[in-house]
Design goal:
The chain is mainly α and 134 residues long. It has a domain at 41-133. Helix content is 75%, strand content 3%. The protein has 5 helices and 2 strands. The chain has helices at 2-61, 70-79, 84-90, 109-115, 118-133; strands at residues 95-96, 105-106. The chain has a two-stranded antiparallel ribbon with strand order 1-2. Strand 1 (95-96) and strand 2 (105-106) form a beta hairpin. Helix 1 (2-61) crosses helix 3 (84-90) and helix 2 (70-79) crosses helix 5 (118-133). The chain is elongated.
Length: 134
């Protein structure tokens, strides 16, 4: 009874899609779960790379960052040569993803700079320094 009602609302095309999903649901769900796991690992990898890069900055400038404004931190980052290569070596996984994104990207200098712009790095530094000063 419920099946007939659902199929009536779906129409012929929707019923075909429902049949396809029911036939291959194990493979479809396995594929979706694998992709979700890859996105999770890529996000963790991206966060690890950011932590590694910003740890170098914290080691170099230390406590002076807590007294700087976001504008001053941005100027400091523009002057500082960001160690992208060593940062990218910090993460073992071959993919990266934006913190709230679902798109996987191959780990490279160019892709990392697209995901983590200067504003995102400044915001991350401000958050880290404000949490350390409390």
């Amino acid at each position: 009874m419920i099946d007939a009602l659902v199929r009536k609302f779906l129409g012929t095309a929707g019923s075909g899609l429902l049949d396809f999903y029911m036939q291959f649901s194990i493979w479809i769900n396995a594929l979706l779960m694998t992709y979700a796991l890859l996105v999770f690992l890529a996000r963790r990898n991206s966060a690890q790379i950011v932590r590694h890069i910003l740890a170098d900055l914290m080691d170099q400038y230390g406590e002076t960052l807590t007294q700087k404004s976001p504008k001053q931190i941005r100027a400091l980052l523009l002057k500082w040569e960001i160690p992208w290569e060593t940062g990218l070596q910090a993460g073992w996984f071959p993919f990266i993803a934006a913190p709230q994104g679902f798109l996987l990207r191959i780990k490279s200098d160019r892709n990392f700079r697209e995901i983590f712009s200067m504003e995102v790095l400044v915001e991350t530094i401000v958050r880290q320094t404000s949490s350390r000063s409390k």
